[in-house]
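Schema walkthrough. Field components (list of strings):
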Amino acid sequence: MTDILTLVFRTFTSQTDGSEELTGPPTSPATCSALLVGDAGLSRSVLLLAAVTAASEVGVRVVFFTQTRIQSLPPCLQKRKILFSYPRTMEELLQQVARLHEPTNTSPAPPSLIVVDGLEGFLCERGAGLAGFHPGEQSVQAAHLSALLCDSAAFLTRVLRSRSPGADPCRVVASFQSPGDGGRAGGEASAADPTLEVLDRYFRVRCTLDRAGSYEAAAGGLHEVWDIYLSGTGMADASDTT
Amino acid sequence: MRSFLPAVAEQLFRDIQKTHQETSQIPDDLLIALKFVFGSCALQALDLVDHHSVTCLSSPSGRKAFQVIGGSGRLYTCFASCHYCPCPAFAYSVLRRNDGLLQQGLRQKRTKRLVDLYKKRPSWKHTMCTAA
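Field assembly_structure (string):
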């Protein structure tokens, strides 16, 4: 997944003098699952760009799960290779992810990228404000969904490689915003969030999107500056193998 | 620091599988190694294997999952390629306390993979989302 994210950042960001050339580790099992944390609006945009990049530049099928319906898409984005799905609840999302292995979803080609926008929206619905809410319930839900996503991706990888031995693995990317995450620096964001700790078990790479806190004026307009951090056990494992 | 324990465990499972295929037995030294890596839960896991409490479900697409009957009689479904179990022990020991390399249900699933004693069900009508 880091390969697609790296391609997105390289393509859609402007690199100023002194900035490093964007590079990422090669695709490997360690880097196939990534979690975007930080600003919800930016995460959604990055996920959409990742879906478009995967479908157009890499040429793979994408399944995009989100609770918020996309009102309109430019014609260039209305590709059959991207399937948008709008589950309203956690149960619906689980059902739809669980069915990705069925022939209707693997023909003519199985998806190679699974995107889930706004995990927090699916996880919060059951417990928030209800009597008898167990603080650990959200963590358990997070583990269940994450494990299902990873298991589905592993199965789809086997299908992809059975049809084409050199095929890249199926990737998973999701976004998550911890409560009260807005405005904090990337390094300390959500450090004590138990749900995020659970998600880190399954998503080997974490991509933190952090507003740098200052605006860079450029000829013709104002530009926001964002810092992007790639971290997690997947990055360390990928480095060990290179 | 990168953990090598998962790789050690995987190699141990490969050794046990190879030995069992050749001799239909698992020697004591490998069982001791299993207990060393996974702790005392390894014995309870093997006990459930002996009682045929693990079933491999397969779907027409080829996807597999494992169902484990826990000590309480409840049925739990584990994924074939990912560490997760819907039982309370996993939620408490693994997710909350971060104890143990694997929770017992997952150890049982891994052990079943070795000894090929599970019951195979050719049709799979459960969906993954009903595992919990």
